[in-house]
Every structure is written in structure tokens, then in C-alpha cells.
Amino acid sequence: MSLEPLDNRSAETLTAETWQQVLETAPDIAYVLRPDGVFLDANPRMCRLLQQSRRKLIGMKVTSSLERDQVALAERILHEIAERKTPIRSTRTYHLASSDAQTFEIMESPLVRDGKVWAIAGIGREITQEVALEHKLWDSAESRQSAIDFALRTSLGLVKGYIYTLGQDTLIDAERRARYTRIVADEIDNLARIVEDLLDMRRLEGGQWDVTADIVNLRDCADIVSGQCREEAARRSIELVMDVPAEMHPLYVPREALMRVLYNVVQNGIQHTLHSGKVTLSVADQEAYVEIVVSDNGVGIPEAELPFIFEKYYRGTSSAAATAQGTGLGLAISRLLVEAMGGKICARSKIGDGSEFRIVLPRRMIDMEQVNETSSWRPSSVEPNPATCA
């Protein structure tokens, strides 16, 4: 049996009809939005998810059906797609009164006409069970340690694979060779960060960290940290602001420890701000102490998670923060270092409105086991519980 070839007109008609049928029957959600997030069209799966008829859904804003921690993220993503004309992959959680929240991995792409984005098309695959399983597996210290081992093996495997390809394939063009080399360099940097975190945690827990104090210029330290974080912030279109007085009272603490704390907390803000946000490091210079605040307008931290964020290997479980990379050691290391300097670190956050980390350090290192809790250097607004701020 032979098939007759289709003429161009018949092929175009069949293609349009076929794709329409695919969208109508697909188990995945599919939709088209205006750049401001208003629905222009949606397939039946999307209509069922939002419990709206197609007629009522058209004209609604997609953010009206999102959880609070998803709204700011969705608005930033849509804005970036419209501005940069590039597709973006993200996760969103839809919550319906009659059922549990459902999480989707979504790919949204710009539709361009006459050089301008007139609409944004999206398609999403439900990953609710995958996210729940990941959270369950991450719920024990053993699983968290296993995740670190997996991250190490993954990075090592990628490095080995790309180096083998570069060495074996003599026909690789210059552009691909440069891209593979960048990937290898990035993975080596990632491996170095993981190893550094693990070694630092071991040194701190074993009391082997060098706490020799130095006269520290906090402005210089902030500028160095800004340089270390600038590339990733730019890649994510995040504005990084350092608001540090040029002239300050002398600060006498271990310089390496302070630099590590600043880097960890700023990097944490960048990781959880995601798209087109802002991370600010500001310093208040007081007579007896210095107060450092790192704030962001990112996804925020659920209230129930705040007491645990400074624990070893802990990572947030909100779907919006699921894409953030890391070992779960950065904030734990920061807390141990701050307390070794006689200081306090605390956090406060609101879902969808970002987070604020506050670090209070005495001018000179103080052994907190030898002084009263009402020591004059520390303002009363810093609570004994490091996971809360007044």
C-alpha cells in the first residue's frame, strides 16, 4: 500500500488541524498569554486545572490563580521574556480550593511580530509527585548527605565526559570547544565550592578554624564579595547593591571568617531571588557593634521553615526555591562563624516578599560563654533564637 503525497495546501491544513487536536487532547497544560500575563487562549487541560470555562478564562490574569510565593516570580519571568525575547523554564504551583496544590514545570516562549513580543506561549508538565518525593527523600540527614555525594559524582562525571570529548573529537569547531571548556570550568568551580563547604564545616565542628582577629575594613570586604558574586547576579539579571559607609569605626574580627559569612549570605540571596530581582547589603555603624543586613525581594521563606534554615544540609522545600543550587551548608557555616566571633545572625521573611538576614557583630571578638546575655554591645532587638528577628 502506497500513500499519495499531499500538496502544500493540504499539508498546511492537516498540520493546523493536527496540532489543534494535539492541544485539545494533551494531558499537559498549554496556553497563550499577553506579555502582561492575561490569557489569550488555553487548552481544555488548563481550563480544568483552573476550574474555568475557556470563555471565562480568556481575559483573566494568570497570576490570579497562583499562590502568593509564585506571583512575583511569574511577573518577573513574563517581563524578562518580553524584554529579552528568550524562552524561560520555571516551576509554578496552582492551588485549588477543592484539591491539593499541583506543581508544574513550565516552558514559556515569546511570540514575536515586527520585532516585538505580542504574546507568550506556555506548555507545562505536572511534577507534583516528583516534588513530593524529592522533599520526602530530603527529609533526613542521611538523605541530605547522600545528596551531597550525588552532587559531587554528577559534577565529576560531567567534567570527565567533556574532557574526554575535547580530547577525542578533533572535528569540534571553535565555538563548541569554547562552550565545552566553559562547562568544564563551571563544574570545577562547583566542585571546589562543595569541597570547601564540607572542609569548612569539618573544621568548625572540630574547633580548628583560625579565629585570629584582624583590623578589618568592611567596605573593602563588601567590594570583594560584590566582585565574587557579580557575574552570577548579572546572569540572573539581579541588581546587586552594596551600601557600606566609606568611613567606619575600627572592626577587629577574623577577616577570612567575615568574608565567608558575607559571601554565603549574599549568594543565598542571589540563589533565591531568581529572575530580575535585587539583593542589597547594607551596614549600620554603631559605637559598640556593627549591624550588617542582606535583603532580597525573592521568593521568601515559609514561616514553618525559618527555625531550620541555619541547620546543616537544610534546604527550603517551597517549589519556587526548588531550583536554587547549593549544599545546604552555607547558612550553617555562617551561623557558626558569626557565633565564633561573638555575634548573632537571624532571619525574617515573608512568602513572595523576599528575605532579610541580619548579622550583628561586636567591635572586638567576645567569648559569649564568658559574658552575660545583656552584654552592652548587642542591641535588644536581636533575639537569642538565631532563626528569628524582632
Provide a descriptive summary of the structure in words.
This protein is an alpha+beta fold. It folds into three domains: 8-132, Beta-Lactamase (2-Layer Sandwich), CATH 3.30.450; 138-208, Signal transduction histidine kinase, dimerisation/phosphotransfer (DHp) domain (Helix Hairpins, Orthogonal Bundle); 213-362, 2-Layer Sandwich (Heat Shock Protein 90). 42% of the residues lie in helices and 21% in strands. The chain has ten helices and twelve strands. The strands form three sheets. Strands 2-1-5-4-3 form a five-stranded antiparallel sheet. A five-stranded mixed sheet has the order 7-9-10-12-11. Strands 6-8 form a two-stranded antiparallel ribbon. Helix 6 (141-168) packs antiparallel against helix 7 and helix 7 (174-205) packs across helix 10 (330-340). The longest helix has 32 residues, at 174-205. It is globular. Residues 319-323 and 368-388 have low confidence and may be disordered.
The pLDDT mean sits at 77
Tell me the distance between the termini.
79 Å
CATH architecture call of the largest domain: 2-Layer Sandwich
In N-to-C order, the SSE pattern is HEEHHHEEEHHHEHEEHEEHEE
Radius of gyration: 25 Å
Which stretches are low in confidence, meaning pLDDT under 50 for 5 or more residues running? 319-323, 368-388
At the fourth CATH level, what is the homologous superfamily of the largest domain? Histidine kinase-like ATPase, C-terminal domain
Q: What is the beta-strand fraction?
A: 15-25%
Could you name the CATH class of the largest domain? Answer: Alpha Beta
The 3D shape can be described as globular
As laid out across the biggest beta sheet, the strand order is 2-1-5-4-3
CATH fold field value of the largest domain = Heat Shock Protein 90
Tally the structural domains: 3
- Count of runs of 4 or more consecutive helical residues: 10
- Report helical residue fraction: 40-55%
